[in-house]
């Protein structure tokens, strides 16, 4: 099966679909040596499948990962708040020996006005086993809600707040001075509002755009109503039929559409070492129905 059935002349190798409509593996390509047509096909495949796993990228280092990202879109700073340390400023290093965990369902950096559109994650150091990552398809989750609930959540707005996760880090370790993000030094974690249902800017499909990591509450309802609404949406979003899971192998790279997914990294490898390097591509302001 070609990735782009409407443009069969622009082809990557056939994909292995991981579910009926969500997630795929691609074999036999080198992300550092794609031509322009292949890059466009890869981006289109990402919108379609939402998360892609590319095996055998052992030759990819930070510089090549960043260069690949630049061909796919506009690379941001690695993170608005975290110091890049001894890696390039475009790289966010998740090191288990420095509290680099992601064991809560989240969508990357939704606490800013323009959350990243795409994330690219590379396995650097893997534990002998464990440390799998799971992705949930927010569009399938939305579409499988009951019609009445879909109509209701279409009208809602929610607040996204990064202080719970990064407030202490920004204040204490960065002294209130984060990284250059969207042309300005990121100095505070002022909560932002996004629609609970986001319309994808390329596909036009609707998807749930709330996540336990950064969504604090629904606007215009009581605290108890907000918690009830969010709990229903979170439980539905992460149902097994909406989730794909990757068991990491050396040389793996995962790409996901941050506008239509949430993800969770299993923290089940005890004191074994795990390091992942992530880059993100600039997104746009979420728009509701």
Automatic annotation (TrEMBL):
Residues 15-280 form the TauD/TfdA-like domain. InterPro entries: AtsK-like (IPR051323), TauD-like_sf (IPR042098), TauD/TfdA-like (IPR003819). Signal peptide: none annotated. GO terms for cellular component: cytoplasm. Keywords: Dioxygenase, Iron, Metal-binding, Oxidoreductase. Its cofactor is Fe(2+). SUPFAM superfamilies: Clavaminate synthase-like. It comes from the Bacteria. Pfam families: TauD. Belongs to the TfdA dioxygenase family. This is Alpha-ketoglutarate-dependent taurine dioxygenase. It comes from Streptomyces fructofermentans. The gene is tauD.
